[in-house]
Write a structure and sequence with these properties.
- By secondary structure, the protein is mainly alpha-helical.
- It has one domain: Arp2/3 complex 21 kDa subunit ARPC3, CATH 1.10.1760.20.
- Helices cover 65% and strands 2% of the residues.
- Strands 1-2 form a two-stranded antiparallel ribbon.
- Strand 1 and strand 2 form a beta hairpin.
- Helix 2 crosses helix 4, helix 4 runs antiparallel to helix 5 and helix 6 runs antiparallel to helix 8.
- It is globular and about 50 Å long.
- It starts with a helix and ends in a 5-residue tail after the last helix.
Length: 189
Amino acid sequence: MSIPVLSAVSPALPRINVRPAERVTAVLAFALLTALGAFVRIPLPFTPVPVTLQTFFVLAAGIYLGSRDAALSQFGYLALGIVGFPVFAGGGAGPGHLLGATGGYLIAFPIAAAFVGAALKPGDSAARATAVCVAATLLVLTLGAAGLALFLSVGAERAIALGVLPFLPGGALKIAAAVGLVVRAPLTR
């Protein structure tokens, strides 16, 4: 007996004939997982941007859902926060967060998820998966630092010091975990 939703969200199970309800369920699941990732929050005293698990779920959405559905899941996550659900880091909500300290990171989520989903194919090696996840993480950090620079009115060097460098160790751990998903459960989409 198979559980239909699992075929939509697990890269280890075939998804050739995924029903629309399964796709919607998978997209919503990753929107909610990204929201839950915002609640795993470690504030850093020297930057207004906290460490969260959100980027892990952004990478995982791309790995599990493919480009289109991964982007949709992250747009869904952003929509939840924009309309007032407290799903942004620290329980934040509202459209102002897209213009705040974390706005650049948030805007990067659907782009990075779509990139991972488009760049990874069944049979890709762990090295390729690592390179794709590194590129997606750097995309998030770059757009995040750009948004932070605008929000704080600081130059690129300060924005990198506050918005990129502190997140590289955690980013490496999230990349390793995401690549583990690809290696342990090969893509079949």
